[in-house]
Amino acid sequence: MAFATKRLGKELKKLHESLPPGIELVSAEDFQDWLLDIRVLDANPLYLNQTYRLKFKFSAQYPIEPPEVVFVNTKDRPIPMHPHIYSNGIICLDLLGSQGWTPIQNVESICMSLQSMLTGNSKNERPEGDQQFVANNRRRPRDIDFYYHDNTV
Amino acid sequence: MPPPNSPVQPNDVSAPALIPDSSLPTPHFREDDEDIEDDAIRTINYHPFDVKEEFDERFDQIKPFVRPLPSAYIEAPQARFHGPILDTDGQPSQNIDTLRLVHKIDFSALDYLSHVDQNLMCSICRMAFYKPVMARRCLHLFCRSCLDQAIKHNGAVCPIDRRSLELPPDVSSENVAGSFVKAPHAIRNQVDALIVQCPACLDQVVRSEVESHLANECPEALMSCPGKNNVENCQYQILRKDLTARCLHYIGRCDDCGEKVLMIDMRLHKRYDCKERMTSCALCGTEYNKFDAQDHHDECPEIEASCKWVDFGCTHRMVKRSSLQSHEDNCNFRFIGNQIEMLTTQMSHLKVQLKDRQRISDSRIGVLESTTRETEKNVRRFTRAQNEDYATLMGRNPLSGLSEDVDPVVTTSDYHIMSLLERQTNRIDRMEANIHEIEASVRASEARSTTTIFNEIIPIKNEVMELRSSQQTNAMHTRWLMQLRLAENRRRGTTVGSNAGGGGESNNSSPIVPHRSSDSLHQPPRL
Fold this sequence. Notes:
The complex is a heterodimer. Chain A is of the alpha+beta class. Chain A has helices at 2-17, 107-119, 130-136; strands at 23-27, 33-39, 51-57, 68-72. Chain A has one domain: Ubiquitin Conjugating Enzyme. Among the domains of chain B are: 120-193, 2-Layer Sandwich (Herpes Virus-1); 300-355; 411-491 and 515-527. Helices cover 44% and strands 10% of the residues of chain B. Chain B is built from 13 helices and 17 strands. The radius of gyration of chain B is 59 Å and the shape is elongated. Classes of the chains: A alpha+beta, B mainly alpha. Chain B: A zinc finger (TRAF-type) spans 269-318.
């Protein structure tokens, strides 16, 4: 755990010092769960004037293992509309899977990747089989084998 | 029996954070603990580990206070040899080095005190590289352990650009790290020279020396108990600063409260734990910790003390401290006392200064003396040389004995000046000779150049003469031709005089008598 703690401590210190535009640290009480807010900066009509909340869950093997990142739904923080984001907040992004993850990624780079993923999207839709997935899924996001079929969005 | 080692008061910041460590073996006992049977003592003394379980139950309340290990430790420090170390004569070794332990530190958990350049940080752990290794193809650097873990999770690709790490095909999955290419020395030296905080004493240490610092120097680091080398083979560890000549891991009784306490923790017990630690002063009635008795003695208002000016003649001795303050404020000796104190301090200052000055001047004198000696030696050498020269000059036999006694009256300084003069004269002579030489050479070169010029001018002169003569010849020819012409003209004028009046006129005016044409034609012109 010391390894992950040390690394997260460094990241947290950096996040407190400076953050890229559109990313805000909401809470980081310990080195297991962090909450961050992200906004899309350009005038994409799908996400205009919206803020989304991300929940990071770090394992003791972070950064060797990717963190679990999901969108959380609260009163003024909806789940963004995207063909790779399920309505329960689970994100299908290769970066966050064990195949696409590399330990040089960090919280900041994940947030920026998600920002750009939203920015580049123009389809106002959920992934295929969203209803069924949301209804049936009991697994944790990291255990789901996503099929990264579509690299256009 | 109540637990004697109840934790130290948590609100007391000066108290070290100590907790009983259950992982350590139970202390052994000495004969001075009357509760233990004799054979048990022997067993425990000789085999402290074998009988651990048995006695844990009985004496589990009494364990030494052990600080938690700093989090940077990978594992608890270990001795290299677990058994006692004996000298050559079979006696327990007294050498303190035999109590050293091996400290294993997690370098990624250290705090860096020096600034770590961004380029020296591993992109996986975001710390300064520790044992950096290099990807074969893309040359990216990582800590050895970071890359090892990353490979186990993500396969043999570079975590930065996912290019193949090109590990040797025969490498086994357990020993992947062994096949890595080490980073260049320049990088490793830079990260090893970084300053980190010692996890125990919080001092500044060069990173590569942390483990040896903990093993050999750090006062807050653990060492084996000195009892390790004795037959008890005590397996406890103590801080280097608490090191004593012998093992104190035995149970004794606190002489104040009568409780059983491990001797090693007696001081802590008396200070923070002993029921009888507080006492009230017999004189002033104030409660104080026995541990701080000296402090109280120095401030108790009821203790008799003397006026602070007693050395200067005040007779106010052995009165209560409470009344002393008012006396000292009015003591007649306070003026003189202050003055004397001031003077004493000034005097000591001056003494120090004087000593400094004296040291400086002594060294200066030494330097001067040595230079004087040197000069004298030089002068003597000069004189001798001069005398020898003189002797040779006068055609005398330059016997050293004679030449030295040439003029015994002359002092060394005169000799020096004379030798200087001599040297100057010599130099001037030499210069004069040089000048003469130069003059001669100038003259010679002048002559040489004149002759060269002459030699060159002579053919030119000859040519000029030739030219002149040929020019005269030409002039003569011209004159002769002119005369010939004139004569012809005249002759023509006389034959056709009636026809041309002008011609007769010019003939009359010409006074020249014509040569005979035969003469002038056939004779060569004179030069």
